[in-house]
Amino acid sequence: MNEKIFKDRTKKLAIAILRLVEEMPRSISADVLARQIVRSGTSIGANYRAACRAKSTADMINKLKIVEEESDETAYWFELIAEMGYVPQGKTSPLAKETDEILAMTVASLKTLRSRKA
């Protein structure tokens, strides 16, 4: 996958997350989960963009590791939101799937970069 497509996918995921949290009920626990998923979900694209501007392979690896961590964290928040029933699972499932795909592609990119570096 090329850089432009990946940037577009991460941006669309962030926008979808922002829209999703607007549908969540207002309660202490829902607000905490909403803030968490907004933070981690928007961080995926921001850190991928930073990785694209890395100064070296090592710098790119470090930035992509952040993308990996934020993607995994976002997947966790989707699980909690779905299990708590804050939004219908039909709304979280496609976004969770996209997050998993982004995570898998990031892990594959990291493996490739590490093999080139060695």
Short synopsis of the structure:
The chain has helices spanning 3-22, 28-52, 57-84, 89-117.
What's the topology here?
Blueprint: H1 3-22, H2 28-52, H3 57-84, H4 89-117
Helix pairs in contact: 1-2, 1-4, 2-3, 3-4
Helix content: over 70%
Low-confidence stretches: none
Average pLDDT, all residues:
96
Structural class: mainly alpha
| Tally of individual domains | 1
**Assembly level:** single chain
Beta strand count: 0
Largest sheet descriptor: none
Question: Into which percentage range does the β-strand content fall?
Answer: under 5%
- What is the 3D shape? elongated
Task: Work out the radius of gyration.
Answer: 15 Å
Tell me what the structure shows.
The protein has four helices and no strands. The longest helix is centred in the last third of the chain and has 29 residues, at 89-117. The mean pLDDT is 96. α3 (57-84) runs antiparallel to α4 (89-117). The protein is elongated and about 50 Å long. 86% of the residues lie in helices and 0% in strands. It has 118 residues and is an all-alpha fold. It has one domain (3-117): de novo design (two linked rop proteins), CATH 1.20.1440. The chain has helices at residues 3-22, 28-52, 57-84, 89-117.
Keywords for this entry:
single chain, 118 residues, mainly alpha, de novo design (two linked rop proteins), elongated
